[in-house]
Task: structure prediction
Amino acid sequence: MLRYLRYMAQLGEQTTITFDCSLKDIAVDLGLTPEILSRALTRLEREGIITRTRLQIKLQNLSAA
Result:
């Protein structure tokens, strides 16, 4: 999951990623269930690697992750 977020951030050379689709759609694109994606994002958020709102994820410290 973190690899995907880093890739998305590099495309726009930014640390905030704005999605135009739901997490359910993102999960399907990644071959995951929505529950697994949600757990992965929650873990990354708890570890301080990301912060997130409904359609945005911000990478906090790319060098440490």
About this structure: DSSP finds three helices and three strands in the chain.
